[in-house]
Amino acid sequence: MNPSESFRCRICRGPVWQFLDLGRQPISDAFRTAGDTDPEFFFDLAVGRCAACTMIQLTNAVPRERMFHAGYPYLSSGSAVMREHFARTAASFLETELRDDGSFVIEIGCNDGVMLGMIAEAGRRHLGVEPSAGVARIAEDAEVRVRVAFFEESTARDIVATEGRADLAYSANTICHIPYLDSVFRGLDAVLKPSGIFVFEDPYFGDIVAKTSYDQIYDEHFYYFTVRSVREMVRRFGFELVDVAPLAVHGGELRYTVARAGQRTVTPAVAEWLAAEERAGLAEAITCSRFAANVGANRRALRGLLERLHEAGHSVAGYGATAKSATVTNFVGITPELVSYVCDSTPAKQGRLTPGAHLPVLSPERFREPYPDYALLFAWNHAEEIMAKEHEFRDHGGRWITYVPDVAIR
């Protein structure tokens, strides 16, 4: 494990030590047409640990405009599980921070407005901030108010000038995307009322380590949070971590509640999570090194299994052209010879090729015409939902291949 001498932590400016290199990777949502001859953008995907504040982060930042743009294909409402999650989230906010008719909530990275739509139906003031114009239009069509922009300090000050200050700021699977969190937190300080809170949820590095879910590491995810690193981060901007709660979505996340220092009572959960991380040695150098070794073993096992199935003449398809599948296909070296196609329910991805590996993306209907012998489940965080929907695949003798937490045939 060698120090990246030229790289400094984006949070505290401490030295960052690289512990995992996932190689040359494309933009994870840059699906291509078959005849596209334009050069494909690649970057070196590597992860490091700050020796000072322990923040886990990428050592290379991809320009945000390459990832979040008018053609961004991910839809938050695309999964029944996530729709239910956001419905529960909205209901909780309406019972707590947004009880009053005059309450105002801002969502950073509102995507297609699935959560804010429920807030709007309750008659509460709201504003989504979303840089990807395509998904923002879907939200607007659902009568959600959206500002098409990246959230940063200047955006926040514009919002205050036109909308006033907010009781609540919320963000799901977005804060970990943003390298420039100093500007984000200055914006939060500007836009929140003195008693306002910021609630955000993102993948948890503890779950990534426990499950060897290295596919959670890709261009969009710049930070990989722990409770310790989040506490240290928010302190630097005059905030305090006041609550932590686990979430089952997206393969394991934590929801963090942040308030200005001294404004809210800190729940016992914060100390409990910090103590658990201390006992586990999470984000310590040796833990990161062991994780990297496990990733290497997983890569070899998955590649070996796919090669054996190919040599035996079995057909293998992929299921779920997720952003994180780009990491797996390119790191493992999965070609169309090993996995003939990937089925996905997102119309914008169908008929295109996956980034880098160039696996054809087909509709779920093609999965049944005929069924393959094996299906590699890239969307493993939705395994229960997918397997229930595709129960006939198993009835026809099909077998699922999973690689989280280890490579297995199910």
CATH homologous superfamily heading of one domain:
Vaccinia Virus protein VP39
Radius of gyration: 21 Å
Which class best fits the helix and strand makeup? alpha/beta
Q: How would a crystallographer describe the biggest sheet?
A: 7 strands, mixed
**Total number of beta strands:** 18
CATH class of one domain: Alpha Beta
Overall mean pLDDT stands at: 95
Task: Report the CATH architecture of one domain.
Answer: 3-Layer(aba) Sandwich
SS element count, helices: 13
Strand residue percentage = 15-25%
CATH topology term of one domain:
Rossmann fold
Low-pLDDT stretches: 1-5
Percent range of helical residues: 25-40%
C-alpha end-to-end distance: 35 Å
Query: Within the largest sheet, what's the order of strands?
Result: 7-6-5-8-9-12-11
- What characteristic shape results from the CA principal axes? globular
Describe this structure in words.
The radius of gyration is 21 Å and the shape is globular. The protein starts with a strand and ends with a strand. Helix 2 packs across helix 3 and helix 5 (153-163) runs parallel beside helix 6 (181-191). It has a domain at 76-286: Rossmann fold (3-Layer(aba) Sandwich). The protein has helices spanning 64-67, 80-95, 114-121, 133-141, 153-163, 181-191, 205-211, 227-235, 268-280, 285-311, 325-332, 383-389, 391-395; strands at 3-8, 15-26, 42-50, 56-58, 104-108, 125-129, 146-147, 166-172, 192-203, 223-224, 239-247, 253-260, 316-319, 342-343, 361-362, 374-377, 399-402, 408-409. The chain is an alpha/beta fold. The strands form three sheets. It has a seven-stranded mixed beta sheet with strand order 7-6-5-8-9-12-11, sandwiched between helices. The protein has a six-stranded mixed beta sheet with strand order 15-14-13-16-17-18.
